[in-house]
Amino acid sequence: IQSKLPEISTTIFTIMSKMASAHNAINLSQGFPDFETSPKLIELVHQGMQKGYNQYAPMQGLSSLRECIAEKTTELYQKKYDPETEITITSGATQAIFTIISAFIKEGDEVIIFKPAYDSYEPSIQLHKGIVVPIQLKAPNYRIDWKIVKEKINPKTKMIIINTPHNPSGTIVSEKDMLQLAKLLKGTDIILLSDEVYEHIIFDQKKHQSAAKFSGLADRAFITSSFGKTFHTTGWKMGYCLAPKALMTEFRKVHQFNVFCSNHPIQYALAEYLKSPENYLSLPNFYQKKRDLFLSLIKDSRFTCTPASGTYFQLLNYSKITHEDDVAFAERLTKEHKIASIPVSVFNLNHQDDNVLRFCFAKNEDTLKSAAEILCRI
Ligand code: PMP
Ligand code: GLN
Question: Which residues does the UniProt record annotate as the domain Aminotransferase class I/classII large (predicted)?
Fold first, then answer.
């Protein structure tokens, strides 16, 4: 068989979760909560089913859900998206990202991405014969050097993908970063894909800088978000994307033949649940407590870190412990010490290894305590 993705093997999330389960290790690798979502939200899904939302949803998504998202976006980012033409409900952010790339990237188009990067971007670009133009961000701050971005932009640049709060580093971009990006993109036709799935998971009173807030970006941007992250339901695979009408029209041309529509009763439930803003406004406090607990429990360990500013991931540097490569160390931690993490080099350019591992702290207090006990013994 001639592979369309000869360099791609199984995603690290599957590898590490499988290894964790095979070795009975605490799984802080793949990002998902080990606690349940709200019973109220589950009840609303039942209600949706009982009320008969059991056939295809509208292709673009349930109008009540799109209206709630429009309201939320206006409230949080002072940007009005038309629910009819500028908001589409997707089966997770991954489907939105794939569909955006599919709708716009053709052979020879260049797409700038920042490494380490969420692992779905690159194969999605390659499948459409686009050229990945990676820019390596440097540990420990993972700041974007806009001078380098400027050098990489040329007439073949079709798209730039940014991700804030950033998986796996937990860093966020500043207002100044977004203004710099707007300045660079001015006068070009470059599409921005702003992956904002962790938009509500941000700490220390910091503000999420959505592309929606910047007129020079919003008018060329797709913004993706994920209900999996926001409502602790990664297994439901529900998300949405926002974009100006002209871009969204092209998106929907692909979306209608890709999935056609997303889960109907869950859309009903999400629309009802979004009516209480507290359900997402409580997230910074909820996850900051988990981050702080995890960091306080491991403060006497030999791991070092810069606290995450957002996401539910914490990078830990282990160079005081060993200089093994991160893949080998992550494997050894899972098999011998019974704790699974994600080696960051798999997301880096040329698999550059900074001796850091990613740990997911979207976990119950007991899980975090057991994990910290192990980490303190290493
Ligand atoms: N982008 C980033 C940066 C992510 O971390 C994730 C979740 N793994 C996604 C997109 C995909 O989100 P979903 O699970 O909704 O497809
Ligand atoms: N986004 C999750 C992570 O970064 C996992 C997504 C997946 O398993 N594909 O861990």
Answer: 25-374
